[in-house]
Each structure stands twice: as C-alpha cells, then as structure tokens.
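ZP: hey, is the fe (ii) ion complex queued? I don't see it on the tracker
AM: it wasn't, my bad. submitting now with these inputs:
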Amino acid sequence: MLAPMKPLAIPSAFTTTFTLEYGVTEADMRRLYENAKRDQWNASRDIPWSDAPSPDGRVIADELIDVYGSPLWERLPEADRVTLNRRIAAWRLSVLMHGEQGALLACSQMVDIVQGADQKFFQATQVVDEARHNEVLSRYLTDRLDGLTYPMPANERDLFDSILSESRWYLKTIALQLVAETFAVALFKMMSESAADPVLETICKRILQDESRHMGFGMLALPRVVNEASASERRELEDYTCFALEKTLTGFFPLEAYQDAGFSPRQIDDVKRYRRETAASNDYAPFRKYFKRDMHGSMVANLARLGLLTDRVRPRLEKLGVTLPAS
Ligand SMILES: [Fe+2]
Ligand SMILES: [Fe+2]
C-alpha cells in the first residue's frame, strides 16, 4: 500500500474581474463554448469499464517502454516485461493525472482573471473538462492498475508552481493551453493508437476531443496579447514559452517505475544510456517517431502562428531537440 501523498500548498494572488456585460463579443470564443457544452461526456457512463483487459495484462505497447529492444529487455522474462509495462503505464498516467489536476486549478483561476463573458464561459467548461480528465485517469489507475500511483516529477511540479502562482492569465495560457496541451494531445493520440487495453484507448480518445478545444482557447485568445506586446513584454512571453517548453519536454524519466520493477541502480543507468542513444539516433518504433514528428510539428506551427517562433526562441527549441523549418 502506497503512503498517501501530501497536498501541495501554492500561494497565489490575482485580480478577479466581475464582468457585467454578458452578451457575445467574441463570436469564435462563444462558438468554442457552445461546442464544449455540446460535446460533454461522462466518465461514469461513456467508458466501457467492464470490458475485458488485454489477456496478458499489458496496458500500453511495449515500444513505449524506453528499455524496449535493448539487450536488457531481451533478457527479461515475459512476466517481468508485463510487470514493467504496467508500472511504466502507471507512472506515465500518474504524470498526466497530476497534470489534469494542475490544469483544473489553473483554469479555475482563469475563470476569475480573464475579461469578458465569452472567455469566462469557455474557461468554466475547461474546469469541468479537466475535472473529468482527473477523475477518469484516477479511476483507471484504481480499476485497471491496482491503484498504482506515482508522485509528481520535479519538472511538472516546477511548471505548475509557476503557472498557479502567476497572476496573468496569458502566461498561464502559454504554459498550459499552448505548450503543455500540445504535448498532451500528441501523447494521448499516440497512446490511443497503441494502447493494449481497450479501456485506455477509449479514455485517450475521449480526452483528445476535449483537448483540441482547450488548445483552441489559446489560439483564439493569445494573438491579441502577442500583437499588442511591447518589446520587453514580448521578451517575457518568449522566455515564459521557453521555460514551459523546457519543463514539459525534459526530466520525465520513470525512475520509480523501474525501481519498483526490481531494476538495480546499474541497470537503471543502462536504461538511461539506451534511452539517450535511441533519442539521439531517433531509432524508435514507427508510432513513436510519428509522435515526435507530430508533437514537434504542431508545437512549431502553433508558435509560428502566434508570432512566438522568434530568433530568441529558435535556438532554445533546437537545444531541446525540436526540428525547425528553415527561417
Ligand atoms: Fe485535460
Ligand atoms: Fe486540457
């Protein structure tokens, strides 16, 4: 039995805008709100919880395990491979589940901070969406993975500490709806296409429907902020974008999952080395290659559309291994 995790306390202060005009002023934003109401789903009713799990107990494709294909993997007995598959899945889903709670809290703050009824109404729908994602992943871990849950990695904690203590909505939006959700969309897409458990596949597909709206909020709300920013404000937007990218794209090694699966410190070092070599040569299974291309492609396209793919941002993206089109 895992020890219960202590709640985090993150101080925050922001100004709440009480909007006294409730008519439509941003038609596209109002449409996004209408879509959100139309496309609500219910984790109790719309997920086939009683469907049989995969016969061998696998949850995700083995190719998603970093050590897959290495000499160490080749020597692992089948039972250990299944154990590792379940532990790694629980670790990755825990990261996502904590991210859903962080998103829920950030969006509830944004309901207060954003101006105008259209934006507030939409953010209110994102609050309920993120609560549902938090709920559905928690139920999945309880129902299908024996309640295995892992703590939040340091980089995720840093990212949400910053998002939740930041008083300006547009910086929250850059980190959450632009950077973190672009990454999450590519990840949920890859997991839905490669899941070994049909219940996980359905959950990922359902979450994806909501995430495209959330990214839509960023793409609708941010252009005005970027266009109207002074030179120094623009530098701040760029720096915050890079901070969010660095926290989202690095530092996610499922150490505790390997430890729990019985890997020694030396074996874990081997896994890390194999992981670095595979990343450097991009020698992944086809769907992992596609994930990387998809995620980098949409990240770059969205940053470019918002005017944030500047000469200050490009080298920092390249340092993170993101391939850029020629400027
Ligand atoms: Fe979410
Ligand atoms: Fe989301």
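AM: back. The longest helix spans residues 78-113.
ZP: great, adding it to the tracker
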